[in-house]
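Workshop exercise sheet. Pairs work together: one partner reads the sequence aloud, the other fills in the structure field after running the prediction. Swap roles for the next sheet.
Pair: D.N. / O.F.
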Amino acid sequence: MHPHDDHHEHGHGLCEDLERLAQGLMRRRRALAWLAGAGVGTLPLLPLIGCGGGDDTSSTTTTTTTTTTTTTGTGTPTTGSCSVIPTETNGPYPADGSTSLNALLLSGIVRSDIRSSFNGATGVASGIALTVTLTLVNTNSSCASLSGYAIYIWHCNQAGLYSLYSAGVTGENYLRGVQETDSNGQVTFTTIFPACYSGRWPHIHFEVYPSLSQATSVSHVSKISQIALPKDTCSAVYATSGYSASVSNLSQVSLATDNVFSDGATLETPTVTGSVSAGYAIALTVGIAA
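Structure field:
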């Protein structure tokens, strides 16, 4: 298999069409309610159409948004929102038990610094330093933080190779790790900036599990998705030593043509701070319907 074998299934049918219609009607109801409150008058509201079937782990996910109002320390109300992050493929190199390999069962997989191999392997991944912070929230509960969940992340190295799978690094297990979300629903990993390999936009894979004890096999997974790394940051990183192949690969792909992110990557694109010399930090809010 090759790294670009990642794929994204799209299943569209009557159920999804009805769900989209329902979302449009909900927006219309909110608009009409606002008009009524402004004294414009009242208009009859259309009924919503319900459709069941999908769950949070299906390959096609209906995105729902929860809006909540909070108060800052100055007493000023602020409005925030969170949406269910799209479900994506775990790709051909997950080592999550969906293939013959399962890094989740290895002693030492629960860790924050994933740059080095563990459990007897000794390799260390080189590259520009990257800190990844994910905040897990519940879209069914006013974007409340979800503590006690587990998040598993993995990605390719500076050369575009995946540990345990790719030739030359099958004996390594670096750039893989699991952590439990804290009271703020957060996990933070220390890693390196991944390469851009042929056929795929630069990305990081992750899986969400209901608890650390259940983070042993993809059969228990709550959500599978990917992080789309911003282009400007990728370009800056790939101009440095060790990433030369990524320059050409990045020039031949875009979010619009990527087979995972082509249907939209807004909810999967993190905020970025930092620099090449100091290292980068990315942060992403991950919404799931818990």
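Discussion prompt: Helices lie at 14-37, 231-238, 244-251. What would you look at next?
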